[in-house]
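Two proteins were folded this term; both appear here.
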Amino acid sequence: MQATRERVLAALDEGPVTGPDLADRLDVSRSAVWKHVEALREAGFGIDSTDDGYVLSSVPEFGGPAVEYGLDAPFEVEYHDSIPSTNARGRELATAGESDVVVLADEQTGGRGRLDREWDSPSGGVWLSLVLRPDLPPTQIPVYTLAAAVSVATAAREAGVDATIKWPNDVLVETAAGDRKLCGILTEMEGEADRVSWVVVGIGVNVNVASEELPPEGTSVQEQVGAVDRRAFTQRLLETFDDLRADPHGVLDEWRAYAGTLGKQVRVETPGGAVEGEAVDVEFPGTLLVETEDGIVRVTAGDCEHLRPA
């Protein structure tokens, strides 16, 4: 959001404020104040003109300015009603030198997950990509994927959904029909052997998505507990991620708290073959430790399956 408009909203938060007072506070003309107020109204903010001055009466349900308003994290939000892929747009912004930008959309028309799998992204979900430039070596970037999963699980639980994480980053909900997927995460990066140029963390959450729009293996927040405030959900996700990225080594404790994989019998399909045993722990930056008949095997990447008890 434009900086002066943020200051207008901050002033309105304090109560009614007149045009001349706003002009003095912001050191702009009264005409400029009127233009900023009109721009905020066009963005969906309810700003009433009363005898006491301007009053903020409502905030948009969703969108870039709505998410930025009151967001306690240093992200700029680029919003799209519809976009083929937030990650593709994120890569464009990253290549252009941008950082700490969130590409947010109401729907995606060409969403993709890991291994180029199709990801349905209808209106009502939270589809976003974070454009980042972390001061980390490439080998440590997997911790950002874990942080994204923790951020989604945190927001989901606060919305009333008992979400868990399947290693490394699938956010699931246990139902009578088995585990159902609430979220998909895709992390992409560019860099050299010892430094990262940029990272794009794509997060797609089925928030207010109706049951009939979900794939058979999916679920949504709405399906579990009813429709929720997408703006608040998105803000909580972004604020949690921002806190976690400040302490990468602390991410694992948070991940363990939500883990549905630890203590389970698993089979992980890796490039070197299947690894089967009990998932006992994770190591930084996200390595899964599996206790097999031949001892502990460390798995850095692969498709994890929870096995049913014998």
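Next, the second protein.
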Amino acid sequence: MRLTGRVRVVAIVIALCGLLPNVAQAASQTVVIQNFSFMPPTATINVGDSITWRNMDPLAHTATSDNGAFADTGQIVAGGTKTVAFAVAGTFAYHCSIHPTMKGTIVVLGTTPTTAPPTPVPTPRPTVPPTPPPQPTPTPAPTATATPTPSASPSPSPSVTASPTPTAIRVPTGVALASPSPALGAGPDLGSGPGPLIAAGGVAAALGLAGFAFYLYRRR
């Protein structure tokens, strides 16, 4: 019974010792830089493993990603090493930034661990205040309109018509107005002698001249 138990322990130890090299190889792989080349040119690892570059050339080199997918090793001096871990599956091309003709590829196998997307937090809806009821529009009071009082028109004032200026009656020069002159030395008795006849003739002449003048006035 005791022998059987010891055999089992030895078998388990041997199995573990056989697995250790494989585990170490899977955890990290070395790429040798020699004769201005990466060996092997294509290295395959699993997600979470790392690559160690060992420079065996007398000059410095780098391992620089073509698209910045992994961290640059910077200069690896002669005899020096640099290690980079890969946590994402994929194929990563790289080169030496000092000697661009040196190229290599890293293939990372496995499933990239994904992080569950965060649960979206519902956006609180803005509180809309209640709409107030419509208020009746106040009716404006009618404004009294003042009616203009017609002003009294001034009555036309009567115009003063100028009376015609009497035209002076022109008496012909050839007609002599004889005025009765009292006879010198005549007495109070006027019934006898030529005096009454001369007076009557003067009156007749005056009347004739007045009629002639009136006739001329009417014809103008």
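Residues 36 and 102 are 6 Å apart (CA to CA). Helices lie at 2-27, 195-219. These notes refer to the second protein only.
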